[in-house]
Design brief:
- The chain is of the alpha+beta class.
- The chain folds into 2 domains: 38 residues; 104 residues, no CATH class.
- It contains 4 helices and 6 strands.
- Strand 4 and strand 5 form a beta hairpin.
- Helix 3 crosses helix 4.
- The longest helix has 30 residues.
- The protein starts with 8 loop residues before the first helix and ends with a helix.
- About 10% of the residues have low confidence.
Length: 148
């Protein structure tokens, strides 16, 4: 196929280089938005949420931060058998995941029809997830009974 007039090898390389810079910038912007949205540096995306690798943030500290950042929002704390039952149901949702958590902090955002769930193991936050509020309420009804 004949090369278009004025399109030599060097200008093709320049065009590819420009495209690569634009693509890299777009990817960095998307990653930055994702990190800003989940409020955690050093995040790695997984099936149902974002695994954290930012040191140890305890449930009390995160609950206090959530009450300051989202005043008036309903929160729910699950521990022990409640947390185990919720995690079994949560991990069974497609795509199947294998999060392990002994404590959960759920912040309900009614206006956005979403929840933020923080997963804790050994007293430290290990993952965050944004889950539709209807799905979380259904899981809570299924695992906690009529107390929801």
């Amino acid at each position: 196929m004949p090369r278009p007039q004025g399109m030599d090898t060097q200008s093709r390389a320049d065009l590819f280089f420009l495209w690569a810079i634009v693509a890299a910038f777009a990817i960095c912007a998307l990653v930055g938005l994702h990190l800003a949205f989940t409020s955690s540096a050093g995040a790695q995306t997984v099936n149902h949420g974002v695994k954290l690798d930012v040191g140890c943030t305890g449930i009390d500290e995160l609950a206090l931060d959530a009450s300051k950042q989202f005043p008036g929002q309903e929160t729910r704390r699950l521990e022990g058998n409640e947390a185990a039952a919720f995690m079994a149901a949560y991990n069974a949702l497609p795509p199947v995941s294998d999060f392990v958590a002994t404590e959960l902090l759920i912040v309900f955002h009614e206006r956005h029809k979403a929840t933020r769930i923080a997963f804790f193991t050994n007293g430290c936050a290990v993952a965050l997830a944004m889950v539709p509020i209807d799905m979380v309420r259904a899981l809570l009804r299924k695992t906690q009974g009529a107390s929801i």
